[in-house]
Write a structure and sequence with these properties.
Largest sheet: 8 strands, mixed
Structural class: alpha+beta
Strand content: 25-35%
CATH superfamily of the domain at 11-135: Gcn5-related N-acetyltransferase (GNAT)
CATH topology of the domain at 11-135: Aminopeptidase
Radius of gyration: 16 Å
Helix content: 25-40%
Length: 186
């Protein structure tokens, strides 16, 4: 199912490295990342994906210069444990949006998401010369909210009842961090 051999380590820390998505990763996305139930709940995903829709998505994002899509991999084994992206990169206004999903439940709550997010946000500030990075997170994802706060993200607003999931409405919390507020955690 998974082709894990890639020598590319775009960004790295002691425990993790981030690498670009490759076409060989499509099976991993289709068979694991997009269907893992806890990941779907935390991201509010309700979409039913097909292999061809995943292929089309990959072809579109690989040509989009306003985004960076990465796999989160373990240094020790090269195994992918999640994926993340920096989206809507706006060089004129020096801002972008980030998202993350750890799809291997064995690595939830152990700081891997915070570490990966720290690498990507630092890249945005230090290399892309961004001034602001934003995100949104659902109110029930307290673990993620706490992770983002460790990195310096601040709550900027609430979109009430923005997600209907499992028979209930949930708020979306808008968060952002400015370059001078960022706290690197690796």
């Amino acid at each position: 199912m998974q082709k894990l051999e890639s020598n590319v380590k775009f960004l790295q820390s002691d425990r993790l490295f981030l690498r670009p998505l490759e076409e060989d990763d499509l099976d991993l996305f289709y068979e694991k990342a997009l269907w893992e139930q806890e990941g779907r709940r935390l991201t509010g995903s309700q979409t039913v994906f097909t292999r061809s829709s995943v292929q089309s998505w990959f072809e579109n994002v690989s040509l989009d210069s306003t985004r960076i899509d990465l796999l989160i991999c373990l240094q020790a084994t090269n195994a992918p444990i999640g994926e993340m992206a920096m989206l809507d990169i706006d060089h004129r206004n020096q801002k972008a949006v980030v998202r993350i999903s750890i799809f291997d439940n064995d690595y939830l709550g152990k700081g891997f998401g915070t570490e990966a997010m720290s690498l990507l946000v630092a890249y945005g500030f230090d290399i892309l010369n961004l001034h602001r990075v934003g995100l949104d997170v659902f109110s029930y994802n307290e673990r993620a909210i706490n992770s983002y706060k460790k990195l310096g993200f601040k709550q900027e607003g609430v979109i009430r009842d923005s997600l209907f999931y499992n028979g209930q409405f949930h708020d979306s919390i808008m968060m952002g961090v400015l370059r001078h507020e960022f706290v690197k955690c690796t």
